[in-house]
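Project standup — Tuesday

K.O.: blocked on the structure for the chain from last sprint. Re-posting the sequence here as requested.
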Amino acid sequence: MKEIEIAVALGKEPSESEIAAAGVRALGIKPSLFGCYRILRRSIDARGSKVLYRYRIAVYPQGEKPEDYILPPYKDVTSEESVIIIGSGPAGMFAALELLSQGFKPIILERGKDVHARKADMAALSTKGIVNPDSNYCYGEGGAGTFSDGKLYTRSSKRGDIRAVLHRLVEFGADPSILIEAHAHIGSDRLPAIVENIRNCIIGHGGEYHFNSRVSDIEPTEKGYKITCSDGNLFEAKKVILAAGHSAKDIYELFAKKGWALEAKGFALGVRAEHPQSLINKIQYHGKYQGGMPAAEYSFVEQIEGRGVFSFCMCPGGILVPSSTEAGTVVLNGMSNHERNSKWANAGVVVSIEPEDLPDYMERYGVFGLLEFQKKVERDMFNFSGSLKAPAQRMMDFCRRVESANLPASSYHPGLANAPLHELLPENVSLRLKYAFPRVGNRLHGYYTNEALLLGVESRTSSPIRLPRNPETLEHLSLPGLYPAGEGAGYSGGIVSSALDGIACATACALSLR
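H.V.: unblocked you, prediction finished:
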């Protein structure tokens, strides 16, 4: 087997004859001895005079062929031993699927609503400013990723086999192109159906889902754990996978109350930067953008005064949404549909924050220091606007430290509050952003502009607390048989890495039960 690369015009695919000819040359064989091929990856290249698709392809001579990736089958677990899973985000869902394959019964406890009922609460949040603390853009079936574009790009190849996640998603309705796209995504309009298909599969094989079941207590017992939900329902099992999500501060508070181990961990905080998508297309395609080309993306990392400033969760052709999980706060996130056809592009631009950056908070609040810092900034944004309107400022005005005379149109439905965002943000964040944006503009010509809008605050990049676990058994250090998983536990960031972590925890759990 050899790998080859073929470039073709955007919107086209290499023909079988092209692939065969290139394969023959790469393998050094006669044309009659060429066997077959498999497309491994497709990416966009706009560096030259033309915009191209670059295909990476594995080619095989006769007698050799690629091994098909075979998903393990699901078992009927109706009468099998149960494992409780707290949370139905990517970590929880994929942990449940893995348990089905391993022959154990997943019982999923989800504080929010099913994926369809959840939409009404998100609509009330956007149009009326009503925050349901258990059902919103962060909480509910599918977790935060369901309504955040469904980005599948990850660098977490060491966490497990990424194919296990991508092939499962295709099994439940995702476009097969996610198997080869360099920056694959599903789209917030398509993810709900996939999430529902996963639920139906789990229930159809004997698993259970319990919505509106926020966990209020976790009690170790002689036989394992007893879980109490806010509605009074009790569940018991030998093993628990805790995949509550990165905003579940009540879980951290429960752990602190019980005296169970917690750790402060770094996170990132900043703004959402919104540009006209046409401008990002012009920058990234070097003026060669034409209708029908995919909406352009961008990413960057800068080092400013010893801390990273980087783009996060970039949504080409997307919109901004309110992601508050409690009243009296303003939190923003981005989402986009499969077609990415909004006229705006947005991304989080955030600054890394470590515990040592906030000694006063750490001294006062201990392990909750960064979480309290996060909450204060979110409240400051709300106190300025008095509603879910986002404090906003033009990009160049922000860097020049002057208030904007007016604001451009935005995709953010609750509206904008013209604000001195450079003063509202903490100084250690504001100053680093001030220096970062012009630097990025030197590389992405046109990015640093007053056409761009900065909105506060992007604060839910990851959890500022970690639930420490044994690196080999994956059990919590204080709680044998309880497996912290995913973003809320501090071990992943994004759909694929969270799903892989859920699979790893389910595998460790099944091994222990055997």
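K.O.: great, moving the ticket to review. The two ends are 39 Å apart (CA to CA). The mean pLDDT is 95.
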